[in-house]
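Narrative of accomplishments. A recurring question from our advisory board has been how the design workflow behaves on a single, concrete structure rather than in aggregate. To address it, we present the structure tokens for one chain from the evaluation set, followed by the sequence designed for it. No filtering or post-editing was applied between the two.
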């Protein structure tokens, strides 16, 4: 039995009340869902909370899931939509806060999707460069590189053709490189002046 068929069989059983089947789906997919949401939120605790919400929503929606070997894209859709909602709410909260409306302070983002980044400075510079991208490019980069989604899945999540995703990745990476180069060139000049 392939993994896709196994996911569908588990989803079918879970939709009919088999909690062990749902627990198996949770164990199988929890890690990548949490990683994807960490890329969205830049906050491990928030990503964990959102991961729980993804699986709660999936559990409620399972009776409507049409098993056709598409469980992973279906679950990614739930996670991406929740991640987008979170970003939208955080952005609105920051805007209201900047406008002087009394809103709880949005916690500072904690960016750690790639543990391989050894330098804290590089880590911060990369985060700043990615955050400076237009939303469609930023989301494509996050989903593809940090969410480990295929081009086809990113296209599905962004509701655009695969060619558009490739373009967004190309121009997004180009802009990140340019931003980092400009920042590091400026830092080099500052250290020469000091």
């Amino acid at each position: 039995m392939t993994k896709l068929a196994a996911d569908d069989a588990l989803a079918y059983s879970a939709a009919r009340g088999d909690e062990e089947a749902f627990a198996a789906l949770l164990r199988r997919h929890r890690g990548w869902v949490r990683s994807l949401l960490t890329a969205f939120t830049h906050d491990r605790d928030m990503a964990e909370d959102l991961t729980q919400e993804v699986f709660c929503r999936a559990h409620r929606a399972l009776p409507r899931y049409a098993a056709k070997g598409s469980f992973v894209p279906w679950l990614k859709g739930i996670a991406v939509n929740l991640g987008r909602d979170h970003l939208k709410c955080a952005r609105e909260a920051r805007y209201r806060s900047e406008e002087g409306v009394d809103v709880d302070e949005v916690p500072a983002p904690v960016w750690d999707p790639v543990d391989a980044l050894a330098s804290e400075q590089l880590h911060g510079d990369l985060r700043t460069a990615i955050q400076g991208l237009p939303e469609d490019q930023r989301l494509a980069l996050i989903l593809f590189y940090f969410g480990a989604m295929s081009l086809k899945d990113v296209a599905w999540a962004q509701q655009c053709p695969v060619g558009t995703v490739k373009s967004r990745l190309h121009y997004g990476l180009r802009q990140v490189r340019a931003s980092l180069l400009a920042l590091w060139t400026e830092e080099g000049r500052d250290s020469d002046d000091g």
